[in-house]
Amino acid sequence: LDVRVFVDKETASKEAASAIAQLIKTKNSKGEKTVLGLATGSTPLQLYAELIRLHKEEGLSFKNVITFNLDEYYPMSPQSEHSYVHFMKENLFNHIDIEMENVNIPDGTISKEEVNDYCASYEKKISEAGGIDLQLLGIGRTGHIGFNEPDSDWNTLTRIVTLDPLTRKDAAKGFGGIDNVPTEAITMGVGSILKSKKIIMMAWGEGKASIVNEMINGIVTDQVPATYLQLHQNVAVYLDREASTAL
Ligand code: F6R
């Protein structure tokens, strides 16, 4: 893993945003679309803010960008303020020139009967778009990437999963109490993530230091799904100082 430590998350996020901008421009110059894998949560907020700035102030266009989000709570209405659809619109899509038909986020309203077929179709849509060029990731304190909690194997694909109690606890504040946090989610699998051509994993703050150390230096195990990133050839890990203190 290519580990880069920055003075703070703002600097790291600007660097990551500039790598994305460069990729979009290179792809554009070849007449190709860029397929981005996106994450939610607090980690990518500064990165999305910088992408918005690059769009507004430096003319970066997302007209030829296709996106796939990693996950969505289940069940979840896209209108809910807790939905990742809402999060992505508020923090990115409403402020750039992306075509909403090129945006893909797992559908938290699909019925239990249809969910397996739906997940297979999400996976198929990613391959039909040519696969993910660049996947953004954060890491949960359980060692999850996407919502691939402990016990998620390296070859898992998009599916419905049960959230770890620690993940629900970490989400409780936003939901006004742990009881309001959904118990399930639809997530791209570890295998779906590992198929991406390039991955940028970001982690900020001392709360992530211990799990970041396990991800980078621990043995590869389904008990810490983020360790599977060690098996990928093109992963950049962007850390702020605090997140790097246990390395
Ligand atoms: C979000 C996701 C999660 C988060 C992780 C870290 O789409 O897939 O894996 O990246 O839970 O969350 P934050 O960034 O809020 O610390």
From TrEMBL:
- InterPro entries given for it? Glc/Gal-6P_isomerase (IPR006148), GlcN6P_deaminase-like (IPR052960), Glucosamine6P_isomerase (IPR004547), NagB/RpiA_transferase-like (IPR037171)
Q: Where is the Glucosamine/galactosamine-6-phosphate isomerase domain?
A: 8-233
SUPFAM superfamilies with a match to the protein in the record: NagB/RpiA/CoA transferase-like
First-tier enzyme category under EC = hydrolase
Which pathway, per its entry? Amino-sugar metabolism; N-acetylneuraminate degradation; D-fructose 6-phosphate from N-acetylneuraminate: step 5/5
Among Pfam families, the record links this protein to:
Glucosamine_iso
- Substrates-to-products reaction catalysed: alpha-D-glucosamine 6-phosphate + H2O = beta-D-fructose 6-phosphate + NH4(+)
Keyword Hydrolase belongs to the record: yes
Q: Which UniProt keywords apply?
A: Carbohydrate metabolism, Hydrolase
Q: Where is the active site?
A: D71, H144, E149
* An annotated GO BP: N-acetylglucosamine catabolic process
**EC number(s) from the headed UniProt entry:** 3.5.99.6
Q: Which family does it belong to?
A: Belongs to the glucosamine/galactosamine-6-phosphate isomerase family. NagB subfamily.
Record's PANTHER family? GLUCOSAMINE-6-PHOSPHATE DEAMINASE-LIKE PROTEIN BT_0258-RELATED (PTHR42892), GLUCOSAMINE-6-PHOSPHATE ISOMERASE (PTHR42892:SF1)
Physiological role:
Catalyzes the reversible isomerization-deamination of glucosamine 6-phosphate (GlcN6P) to form fructose 6-phosphate (Fru6P) and ammonium ion.
What is the protein name stated in its UniProt record?
A: Glucosamine-6-phosphate deaminase
Q: What is the lineage of its organism?
A: Bacteria, Pseudomonadati, Bacteroidota, Cytophagia, Cytophagales
